[in-house]
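Record 1 of the preview.
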Amino acid sequence: MAQSSQSPHECPVPVHGGLVPLHSGLLAHDPRHVYEALRRRWGSIAPVELGPGVEAWLVMGYQEVLELVWNERAFSSDARRWNTIVEASLPEDSPLLAVLGWRPALNRLDDEAHRRQRQAVTETLNGVDTRRLRSAVRRQAETLVDGWGMNRTADLVTQYARPLVGYAFRVLIGLPESEERKVAALLGSIAGTAHDAARAEAELMRTLHRLVAAKRDVPGPDLTSWLLTHSAQLTEAEVAHNLAAILFAGGESTVNWISGTMRLLMGDARLNSAVANGRPTVANAADRALWDGSPVPNIAGRWARSDLTFAGCQVRAGDLLIPCLTAANTDLLVHDAQDLGSRAHLSWGTGSHGCPAKDAARSIAETAVDVLVRRLSLVRPGDSDTALCWQPSLWSGTPDALPVAFTPIRPGPITAAAAPVVPAVMGVPEKRRGAPAADSGSTQQAWGWWNSMNGW
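->
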């Protein structure tokens, strides 16, 4: 990996061998400060180490991130180009591969293969009735708030955002209720790049393959069934891997978006009061939160197709470059665009690889925050003596916990005594005849890219 040609300035982060070790726990305390320190030292792009001996470039400038994700002639989304893989210097069970490894899904493909899957996923998500989705999320959010009783304290991450988003995405993909908590835990391990992330990714894929097989036989009102019947003729393995992409990008980002919006409101009493009175709206506040801290701080990287000079640095073919959305959103270049209500941020990515689930995520996040604003008064941090701690991960933009204290101001709606029926947020497709069988990716070990190298 070539070194930056920019002159470094003093920076309060450690540097080993010219690289910043992002795997050393640096990101465990509000990673926004780390990214700002890196920007002050290196400018728009910094040489980093993701794991022992795993080098990458962290791209932090707004214009540079745009160039990285838009210029598909220079940069690929296919991890099989990664020189670390080609040189066989990355262990097969590395936790990094749960996020960065190749898979047959829209976010890890280029060109026509990407467009085919992107069309299927986008058109399927467009079939979600967002009015019904918001209604279902509101009912579940009210139930969660009611469950706190008169405690007057709660953890908005573990007791609200995560279970609420887990419920919403369970409904969206048609996952059995019995699998909801397990899938949420697996996604958490992957996002946090835990030591068992490889095991978590493998177990997640086994769960999703079972779901796809069940929906093939009995379609339901869910994304899984519609992906199976889409004219793009996705294989069962492709459907499963795209569901994993939706859950990881859409689900994790929505949890982070809810907690980020609430942190913003708790830190600005005037804004909190104004939102409670509808001026500005919850949607405006949610967009402001996207500027302050992207729900997904960094997105899975791009790989240089050839040797090139990028942002003043000599980048080799196969080098990994990671778009840092949080840093890009705080670039002084776009400071004037950060007005309340502006949506020029890069929190959902951009270009052909922008997040296709952002509308569903917005419906869930805005509804979740609206319920809290309407139901609770004087929400404030619950333990001012305890600093918030983040998972030391590039992929998670929320603290592990967000304890709050509040005053309940009104009871929730009266609900029926009978168990609620799981809502349908879209119709039921007709079964597809002659669907392609599951390809070999459904039975290979989790790292299908390793077995596919002979054909690369």
